[in-house]
Amino acid sequence: MKNDVKFVFLAGVILMSIVIRLPGLQLAPVDDEAIWVIEIGEAGISYDVITHPPFAHLIYSLFMSVLGHSYHSFRFTALVFGILTIIVTYCLAKEIYGLRVARVSTVMMAILFYSVLASLQIDMDGSILCFLTVSTLYAYLIYLKSNRGRWLLVSSVFLGISLLTKYSAVLIVLIVFVYMIMSRRDKLASMLPFVVIGGAIFLLFPVVSYVSGNWAIFTDTLGWGSENVESRGMGILKSSVKHVYRIVQYGTPLLLLFPLVSFARRRRKEENLLYIWVAVYFLFYTFVVSAGNISRYFMIIIPPLVILSARAFLILFSQLRMRDLLSIVGVALVLFGVICLQNGGAQTIEPFTLERQNFGVISQNADIWYSSTSGPNFRVSSFSFIFVLVGSVLLVVLCSFAKGHEGKLWIVFVALSLAFNMFLVEEFLFHKYSPDYNDVMRDMISYYNVNNLEGPLYSVNEDIAYFLTNESFYNLKSKADRSTLGKEGGTAVVLNLPKRMSLVDDNYAGNFMIRDVDEKCELLKVFYDGKYDAGYVYDC
């Protein structure tokens, strides 16, 4: 009977997870996401741009062969692995802390924005790699507790597949090593077969590449990895602050403050695995990786942060009552309405500002942008972000002084974080308060086709390349040689996306083109989404 109840609960949460994520299947691919859809085409897999080991390529290709070649099938692939990650996270939480923490962890994975985003992103970090990482560490922990060799073998296989997905998976070995030194030195020798078997599986990649005559596929991935790794020097402090900010921005204060509560009350040696997991990846991206989409890279630590936050929740609400849950939901709905009101008065955006001779101007609007080369693209009023951040800190501080009222303050804290997460999920999926680039892009493409505009096509957006040419701009002349802009005629199609880098930096191809298109081409049409000037089409 108890097992039936456990299954019904888990199945119910998984069903809720799927329902929440289903609207996201229609989201158009954003930049790097479009590269995946283009490079893994109907004719087979191309490794020209996605220079990573092949497992994720093969997974997407397999799903594509069954579901058909479209970005919907790629998002569905990510969703499947995201759901699998939720299930394994439930198992890991149950193994470390027990059933109650596992249940709360599962609910948090189902509804929190960062987890929803990770399980819909066409890439590897938040879905495929995250699932493999959680599975590897879960299987190894089961081996340590049961001493059954088959679990060590399962963990080793997952390690090998993880390495075949992305080279950063080597950090799993470091996580296990540090954990063994701290908590299980008696089993340290088990790391030898773990590494040997996992390494042997990974070696299939260079061996098959060499035997098949495609040795460059392997060496290119090594070259790409080395380009993204370097010492940070004096930039370490700045990098650390940036990374903490990204965790707060995407994970909300909940996933930063609650793990600290859990850390202060740590009791079991098994939970050290979670803290080491977070610390290793944070230090790696602070000290080693020079650049990249930190919001995407940190998806790998969502499961441990969620488990630790779930444990903190149950520490603070040791006698969890239905009245407390209803209070959290009720206050969250009120605060959600407040945040919606705060975001209702946004004006035109100027992230890249196409005004003549005004390319150094940063957006005059007080917005926090959720943006990366693998999506999403939406804005949140910076007032809302500050309201949530400062409000969360004040509530935690007040808990130290308001003796006897801590429970009520923690209810408001959880409700505030939940309300903000609800708002972020709504904006990611439906864009009620920010420009919906899906609609704008479709309108621009329709305009291009209806008016029979001429090539060559110029853009800095991979998603435009996918919809208009089904070819990556890494393969188009306009990507490689910006000097042709305007000389050969053609059309420039530009999304007015949030500013990501300094507009005076000509090393960033997007800035180079945006200055050129405004100087050399004639503006044909501005595309609005409500009050937002979200796209431009130029005749060159």
Question: In a nutshell, what does this entry contain?
Answer:
With 540 residues, the protein is an alpha+beta fold. It is built from 24 helices and eight strands.
Secondary structure topology:
Blueprint: H1 2-21, H2 32-39, E1 40-41, E2 44-45, H3 55-67, H4 71-96, H5 99-111, H6 113-118, H7 128-146, H8 149-163, H9 171-183, H10 191-202, H11 204-211, H12 215-227, H13 236-251, H14 254-264, H15 272-287, H16 294-297, H17 302-316, H18 322-342, E3 367-371, E4 377-381, H19 382-399, H20 406-430, H21 437-450, E5 457-458, H22 462-469, H23 477-480, E6 491-495, H24 509-520, E7 522-529, E8 532-539
Helix pairs in contact: 1-4, 1-5, 2-22, 4-5, 4-7, 5-17, 7-8, 8-10, 9-15, 11-12, 13-15, 14-17, 15-17, 18-20, 19-20
Strand order of the largest sheet: 5-6-8-7
* Strands, total number: 8
What shape does the CA trace take?
Answer: globular
State the domain count.
3
Biggest pleated-sheet summary: 4 strands, mixed
Through-space gap between termini: 71 Å
> What percentage of the residues does DSSP assign to strands (E)?
5-15%
Low-confidence spans:
348-364, 500-509
What structural category do the secondary elements indicate? alpha+beta
Number of helices: 24
Summary keywords:
540 residues, 3 domains, four-stranded mixed beta sheet, alpha+beta, 8 strands
Description:
- 44% of the residues are buried.
- The protein contains 24 helices and eight strands.
- Helix 15 (272-287) crosses helix 17 (302-316).
- Mean pLDDT is 83; it is low at 348-364 and 500-509.
- By secondary structure, the protein is an alpha+beta fold.
- A four-stranded mixed beta sheet has the order 5-6-8-7.
- It has helices at 2-21, 32-39, 55-67, 71-96, 99-111, 113-118, 128-146, 149-163, 171-183, 191-202, 204-211, 215-227, 236-251, 254-264, 272-287, 294-297, 302-316, 322-342, 382-399, 406-430, 437-450, 462-469, 477-480, 509-520, and strands at 40-41, 44-45, 367-371, 377-381, 457-458, 491-495, 522-529, 532-539.
